[in-house]
Amino acid sequence: MNARVPEPQTLTGRSVALTPLIRADLPELHAAIAHPEVFAGGYGGGPAGLPTDLAAFLAFAESYYPWTTGIPFLVSTVPMPEAPRVVLGTTSLADLDVTNRGAHIGWTAYDPRVWATSVNIESKLLVLGLAFSHGFDRVKLQADAQNARSRAAITKLGAVFEGVLRHDRVRADGSWRDTAVYSILSEEWPEVRAGLDRRLAVDTRPLPVF
After folding, report:
1. pLDDT of the residue at 1
2. What does DSSP assign to residue 83?
3. How far apart are CA 132 and CA 16, in angstroms?
4. Burial category of 205 from C-beta neighbours within 10 Å (exposed 0-12, middle 13-18, buried 19 and up)
5. Residue 208 belongs to a domain
6. What whole-number distance in Å separates Cα of residue 184 and Cα of residue 158?
7. N or C: which end of the chain has fewer CB within 10 A?
8. pLDDT value at position 3?
9. Domain N-acetyltransferase: where (predicted)?
10. Residue 209 — very low, low, confident or very high, per pLDDT cuts 50/70/90?
11. Domain total for the chain?
12. What is the rounded average pLDDT for all residues in the chain?
């Protein structure tokens, strides 16, 4: 049985909301993630790929995010009447192969102020749930092989390390990137989901005040 491509939709958790990314969101996303420390780990082609200003970021976003091959999401706080949303970052579900039931969660970046908070845990819980509920059997996650912080975060999600793709792509500075590949299978998802739920249950830290 084939998987089904999800319709673009809003995913709402305890403290974060994921809404389909639109071009009008890009100035707020630029303010959240266009920082040297975000690109230092390999995001967007590495440090040399950091857009110099908003206009450059808009051009970068147009070619970088998987607008036509999946669902890019804007990650924000859950909007409340008394507290408008705060943009925290982005992640995407893309490379949707319905015949072989494979998908890829990536293109993920957050405002450095929410690193080491529950934002990534909850975001991944929501997107993984979307993928597996639509019949996908394998969800891939990957990172620059040199990015120890991102690789540790992927491992803590419960993903299984599959190996390193050598000279997988060219970085913005012309050097080669090796890519560390991880995955979660549908039969592993219940245990992974339970682990993420447990991590969220014990994490009572509020998000930073912006």
Report:
1. 73
2. B
3. 20
4. exposed
5. no
6. 7
7. N
8. 96
9. 17-159
10. low
11. 1
12. 95
